[in-house]
């Protein structure tokens, strides 16, 4: 069990950064980072971004120095490497996700790509009006975002259909939901109850801000700042932090 770090060589925000990784588990990585004052916001799904001024102290604390290519190989060998596209960020990784068959994982990925991944099977739409989020009832009585299975459509077509089914007010410009991110299931060994393609299936979340005059056909408006009390257990909820802090495209 070892923590590894590459030299500060990655420029961002006017400084250089290192990558801090574990070859064993995310839990080991989180424990090491917390013990040495690295904030959780520096976690990027499979590594921590560490500013150059912390490098020497982390090596002195036990992080083993390696070059950047070896960091990637360590993550690949350990199975902790998370694939993502350009302009994407892993906001949460859930190995052994309890809602999936044993041996599976779920990764929550924020995205600034225009298109959802090709293996997207469900789209959800986060409609925001002012400081409120539109939710609908699930069959089990809980709340969810309005959603639709993709089927033979493209994800963008499916989410456009969701938007059209919900909004009734004429608008000077048509709704144009933008991709907020997605949850990617990786299920190597499905059981009989798992209904989605394997090994990977994505569940995309799009965002759309409405004007104050816009009305909807159905659903319930929840204050966005309070919605976490009822929605935080949903696998897509980490993406809502981008909505709450305004970090999404309009």
TrEMBL record:
Protein's name according to its UniProt entry: DUF4031 domain-containing protein
Pfam families: DUF4031
InterPro entries: DUF4031
Residues annotated as domain DUF4031: 3-77
